[in-house]
Amino acid sequence: MSRIDGRTAEQLRPVTIQRNWSKHAEGSVLVSFGDTKVFCTASVTEGVPRWRRGSGEGWVTAEYAMLPRATNTRGDREAVRGKIGGRTHEISRLIGRSLRSVVDFKALGENTIVLDCDVLQADGGTRTAAITGAYVALADAVAWCHERKLIRAKAQPLTGTVAAISVGIVDGVPLTDLCYEEDVRAETDMNVVCTGDGRFVEVQGTAEGEPFSRDELNSLLDLAVAGCAQLDGAQRQALAAP
Amino acid sequence: MSRIDGRTAEQLRPVTIQRNWSKHAEGSVLVSFGDTKVFCTASVTEGVPRWRRGSGEGWVTAEYAMLPRATNTRGDREAVRGKIGGRTHEISRLIGRSLRSVVDFKALGENTIVLDCDVLQADGGTRTAAITGAYVALADAVAWCHERKLIRAKAQPLTGTVAAISVGIVDGVPLTDLCYEEDVRAETDMNVVCTGDGRFVEVQGTAEGEPFSRDELNSLLDLAVAGCAQLDGAQRQALAAP
Amino acid sequence: MSRIDGRTAEQLRPVTIQRNWSKHAEGSVLVSFGDTKVFCTASVTEGVPRWRRGSGEGWVTAEYAMLPRATNTRGDREAVRGKIGGRTHEISRLIGRSLRSVVDFKALGENTIVLDCDVLQADGGTRTAAITGAYVALADAVAWCHERKLIRAKAQPLTGTVAAISVGIVDGVPLTDLCYEEDVRAETDMNVVCTGDGRFVEVQGTAEGEPFSRDELNSLLDLAVAGCAQLDGAQRQALAAP
Amino acid sequence: MSRIDGRTAEQLRPVTIQRNWSKHAEGSVLVSFGDTKVFCTASVTEGVPRWRRGSGEGWVTAEYAMLPRATNTRGDREAVRGKIGGRTHEISRLIGRSLRSVVDFKALGENTIVLDCDVLQADGGTRTAAITGAYVALADAVAWCHERKLIRAKAQPLTGTVAAISVGIVDGVPLTDLCYEEDVRAETDMNVVCTGDGRFVEVQGTAEGEPFSRDELNSLLDLAVAGCAQLDGAQRQALAAP
Amino acid sequence: MSRIDGRTAEQLRPVTIQRNWSKHAEGSVLVSFGDTKVFCTASVTEGVPRWRRGSGEGWVTAEYAMLPRATNTRGDREAVRGKIGGRTHEISRLIGRSLRSVVDFKALGENTIVLDCDVLQADGGTRTAAITGAYVALADAVAWCHERKLIRAKAQPLTGTVAAISVGIVDGVPLTDLCYEEDVRAETDMNVVCTGDGRFVEVQGTAEGEPFSRDELNSLLDLAVAGCAQLDGAQRQALAAP
Amino acid sequence: MSRIDGRTAEQLRPVTIQRNWSKHAEGSVLVSFGDTKVFCTASVTEGVPRWRRGSGEGWVTAEYAMLPRATNTRGDREAVRGKIGGRTHEISRLIGRSLRSVVDFKALGENTIVLDCDVLQADGGTRTAAITGAYVALADAVAWCHERKLIRAKAQPLTGTVAAISVGIVDGVPLTDLCYEEDVRAETDMNVVCTGDGRFVEVQGTAEGEPFSRDELNSLLDLAVAGCAQLDGAQRQALAAP
Q: What binding partners and quaternary form does the record give (chains A, B, C, D, E, F) (predicted)?
């Protein structure tokens, strides 16, 4: 059985990671998972938020947003409505936690890196693309800090790599990297964030319809670990370029 | 090795579920997991939100909040700050999704039930206590609808039961139903929502420190399934009382 | 003629004042006037707001809120609407002023005590129950400060006691401690805050229908003074317990 | 003993009531109590708020605000801060209630009148000047409705007149119509709203320092009733002009 | 051809500039352009916003607002809606820029002057009346600073004068100082801010209907320069009074 | 004398207009003026805002925003701050007015087109690039409406073309299409919106330092008209592609 777009169950959509997409940001990446395109920038500032001052430790945080017409029908701007929606909050927090899981804040020193992930076009998996792209922008920003000597020469603020994939059960079949149409029809939807060594940073599974069994959960985790490993490769390849 | 409060790794804190705690609400429960106390009310209104009108289907949603001094140090009121925080949004959404997973909206008809979960005292596990208590309030509200004939006599809006527990890894040991002190020290923290038949509605695991392995994930899931089964018993017992 | 609930005109509803209702707050009270139940916590922090720093004087303030389903029909959460309503503002200010009337800020020193009064169940008189309960929570918080030596040993921050009662004219008859049904039907509604020695801190009378005469005003004040004296007794009794 | 500005204890400041101060509003008044100047407009719209539709009854409401530099030091604009402060809310509600006390909503029919009271210059007593001036603007707006035949020919939407005065105890002496300097020093501050026949619509007394006795309360009420009677005269005189 | 109100194309409406309209503000002006009336106050505070501290330079800013019933139909209060509208923002910024164009911030020293321009009655040209009146209030505030020795004796913070006029094309004819009815019908609308020596500070022309030609633009600029020269005279006359 | 980037005074930066940059929007353009890149989408919805219903006329509006790191230092998200800044409001309104100047709303029928202009990278002239790109997106959206028969076959909703350029005086020299560094140093800054036939839709000139003379204004207008003519060519060329 083949999927809507002809993929096999365990096949990711084409992934591209373009670095240096902005002339201003210390790290910037346009990441695409198929038709999902997210623009990730990493902004470095010296100093940390008030509650962390004097600790000798840095901070990493993230903000996620969708452009109003990233989706099939236009959504209101959150700035115009005057408040951040629950979904936006939730995803921003997820991205921030995921990246912090591979940061050694002592090594970063009292510097702050903000990851902005703005979805230019959405077709499912925007949060997982955002995490995957933001990691690369973060790595570039850390390199920039090294060049500017904002970080001690031997300090290694990144303790590993991190990537994320969505998996789900559609018509009873576990699939990886769901596009929007699959996502809408999924009975179970799971976002998994893994480090490059195959361990878990986040596992967020939700039954959209029927509750799911332990076996189904296991199948989804298998798909996710395999998908993240592929994304890890794509990240390394992107970062290996000059 | 025994825990801070003397429990074994797989032992829940004392659970109490007091029904009819309010004279106004169609369902109302004071639930406690140890020192965590959450007041859950279910409010029935005829009709549904605009986007669902004419569908013949009902709606269930939830709002979670903490009283300012539910915690050890006083937090600002979100109403005073003028916006809902990300954590509050996230938990409200989780509770709503969890309860909707056991609702047949056709059977509910065009009625709306809002679950308000207000934390009176917090000591870890507030969201899991909220889900567990809110289910009982929801069941009472559904019964109230039946008495008032808002629902067809044979309709069964509840397709199952649902409860939730937090589990985590503290000092390398998987523990169930973390209290606040354990939660703060946990390397991995997971909230699991199960139906009464032992299937999963939500699995949300987060590495607070080190990433976690597949084995650790499995241990946590085992604990969670066992914990939810116990909570399911407590719910049934509470609902069996007149 | 007897009232809806069988009371005489000058009879209060049953009053209960339960102390130590929370394990976190420095003072905490669940107060009930009949079916009206308000949870009052007193939170101590060292230091004072910016505009008072260096004055050597402390500060006491209050915030009042209703849980969404404290009333017969569910009200929107003010946090969700993103702003505090006029009624909430007004009552919070009233509670704060009432308590400050019995505080010697020099004796309190540069400490701040915040009284949170959250209505768990409403049946008329929520603001008067809140003031009455908050005074007891405040007294416990002051005692806590003494134990922790945040206040000088001989300092007496409380210069008196304070309690409040609602009175009103229903069907031409002055009544004390109105329940919700009486309150709705009252032609005149008055909230009176008295010190333990029978003097006035606040008198807020409002004609809901016909304007009221000087004689009617005098009858209401008589009822209020008598009611507050009874509440003063209930407060003393509660505080006398260990 | 004479007052700061040479008045006797029971003497009002000079009161002026200028009608037709705006070419747009259906009623408009510039009222001054000494240096306190409030611009009151009454705006008529056909129809009523949603919750009152079909009742055959009208509605009257009020909004109070201060210009930023109405006071001695500039205050932030509430529009810029993005929220209405508690004091503003409280006074707006007081003005609305006071005016509604003399309105027969059946006679008004399904029309809405909004009273805007904007303080151009403040020197104590802004809320009482606002009520006194707004009544005159309201009377003009009702006359305008009659001319336009928005109201039935014989209907009398105004059932009486209403005016307001502040009174207080300064250095132990009861005084009427406090100016700002007196207000700041007052031990007790009371705002009283009376109808033209000398009955009470609102009595709001607050101990700013020491609690006040029943005797003091009585003295203040005497002063207030006398002051309102004088204001009633000023209103009648203003309305008698063409 | 004569205009709605009988003026010639190049004739301004009657202009009045009343100084000292408030007892509190350091400068205060009630300016009228025909039926448009704007109350302008200048508030001096020592010190500057954070971003300018230590620069030795002062700051001037402005806030514009309309009273709700300044216009023919009542508008909602921006404070009640909880946000400043786009038009208000735009005009506040325009007024601030216009006044800053004639200020030498070094000469002003680290003082801040805020111009509040509140429209009491609107009949077209509110922003131009506001700029013209605010300049006079600013001049009075600068004089006040000199008297209080907040500014060095020889420092001249005002480097020139500034006034503003609206011009437009109505039924094909260029007209100056549009009243509301003309403004609504104008095909092109332009606001021009000039210094007393006839140079431009702001030129803001907008085609409301048909685009406008270079010739039309030139005719409008001619009218505007002539109008501003007249306003400059009115300002000088007002300031020449004691 | 050559400019920072080697251009002559009247030379535009390289202009690119890429159509169909999004798969969802009815019109979508990535426009760049040198390093300034703006993503413009046109979203069509059937129906119009409430105030326009039943008129038979359509509506066109615009929203402008900057991504947080579009600029050299990161700016706060307006959604996070909870309000739209004055500059954003002002530019959104300018873009909307500019596009409406070439729309025949009768021909558009009761359809609404929203133009979203999100700045991905800023280097001066973001509002002029936005207008220029949004026009092309609008044209594509109109064509889409024709294909879907939302517009009558012979109706021509676009009555002309529109483009915009910034011009300014830097070191006394009038220059066209200012980049950020020139913009910061400009004594006078002007944004001009022209139709394809060389007439004006908007002229917004501001003296940032010294006021500007009529001669300087004329030079700037000459540059602007020439620049817009070039942009008109670029738009036509882009739209001529399939």
A: Homohexameric ring arranged as a trimer of dimers.
